[in-house]
Specification:
This protein is mainly α and 327 residues long. Helix content is 55%, strand content 7%. Bound molecules: adenosine monophosphate and tryptophan. The site of tryptophan has 14 residues, from β1 and α7.
């Protein structure tokens, strides 16, 4: 039996190279080894205000990008979270087994609470319970994510354990799968902040659909320091982040990369980095255009993905409802 992999991505903002290098790339690479399910989490997206038409088009855009990046719709199950009602239903049940104190400790919520000027919704607070439902519905073994999601996967394990201790073995305990390098790609304009989809500044992230000109401009403007040597040094976060991006796109070793830029300055390195990114994204971008030429095609793949995932989710939900005494 193959191990089950489950992961999710929000259809908001623009998908960037941080999403790609820490998550999507691994999802693609491990598809044959695992039984994989990838979910476009639109219910998570609405925990913050969204423009309805934009949200709808982003769902298709993310799906197109996943397929263009190499997720095979026959091998993996790819679907939209709101298409399977069991996600919302299990969330409610899990809410009733999650102490408020566990949720109050979530660092992502605390950060968003600080950032948001307007009132924050109960949905945003409850975001990790919805994520736990996503994962637990499918008897997931492994959850490949970036570093920022580790705490949410740990909470999922805690909630599952709590439920199991009350009702007996019900949920499988999932493990986070976090890459050693690149699990936290930083913003180009500010290498002390993680690259984020919701950041408005135009020089912050390289998006997967960026034009070559935009990529060159963003890389050349990326914040570094006043030193010259191109070396992997975590105390120099700007150049370090760019080097990690170079490392992950080329697959070269750190000593080889440092040797290659020995005696050269940041400008030479940045020029080459921009071309490496452009070359790596080119095939993905052209496949994206093919996939999205007929928008109904993406919709049909997503409908098929949901119809393959739904029976698994409904089976778990039925077991849980029975144990709790519902219905
Ligand atoms: P999200 O953008 O929140 O939908 O995240 C989708 C996936 O990308 C998750 O696995 C995140 O952990 C990962 N991710 C998001 N931002 C970054 C980043 N700056 N560096 C590495 N991984 C990231
Ligand atoms: N919260 C995740 C993020 O923002 C997305 C997500 C939702 C997810 N449900 C999930 C990731 C389940 C892994 C497993 O990145």
């Amino acid at each position: 039996m193959k191990k089950r992999v489950f992961s999710g991505i929000q259809p908001t903002g623009n998908i960037h190279i941080g999403n790609y290098l820490a998550a999507i790339k691994y999802w693609v690479a491990s598809q044959a080894e695992f039984d994989s399910i990838f979910c476009i989490v639109d219910l998570h997206a609405i925990t913050l205000p969204q423009e309805p038409n934009v949200l709808k088009s982003k769902i298709r855009e993310v799906a197109g990008l996943l397929f263009a990046a190499g997720i095979d719709p026959k091998l993996s199950k790819v679907f939209v979270q709101s298409h399977i009602g069991a996600h919302a239903e299990l969330t409610w049940i899990l809410n009733c087994f999650t102490p408020i104190g566990w949720m109050q400790r979530m660092t992502q919520f605390k950060q968003k609470l600080q950032e948001q000027q307007e009132q924050v919704s109960v949905g945003l607070f409850d975001y990790p319970a919805l994520m736990a439902a996503d994962i637990l519905l499918y008897d997931t073994d492994l959850v490949p994510v970036g570093e920022d999601q580790k705490q949410h996967v740990e909470l999922t394990r805690d909630v599952a354990q709590r439920f199991n201790s009350i009702y007996g073995e019900t949920f499988k305990l999932p493990e986070p799968l976090i890459p050693e390098t690149g699990s936290r790609i930083m913003g180009l304009d500010d290498p002390t902040k993680k690259m984020s989809k919701s950041e408005a500044s135009s020089g912050h992230a390289i998006n997967l659909l960026d034009s070559p000109e935009a990529i060159r401009a963003k890389i050349m403007r990326a914040t570094t320091d006043s030193l010259r040597e191109v070396r992997f040094d975590e105390n120099r976060p700007g150049i370090y982040n760019l080097l990690v991006i170079y490392e992950l796109f080329t697959g070269l070793s750190r000593p080889d990369i440092e040797a290659r830029f020995e005696g050269k300055g940041y400008a030479d390195f940045k020029q080459e980095l921009a071309e490496v990114i452009i070359d790596n994204l080119r095939p993905l971008q052209s496949r994206y255009r093919e996939f999205t030429a007929d928008p109904t095609y993406i919709d049909s793949l997503l409908a098929e993905g949901a119809s393959r995932a739904r029976p698994l989710a409904e089976k778990t939900l039925a077991i849980v409802k029975n144990k709790v005494g519902l219905g």
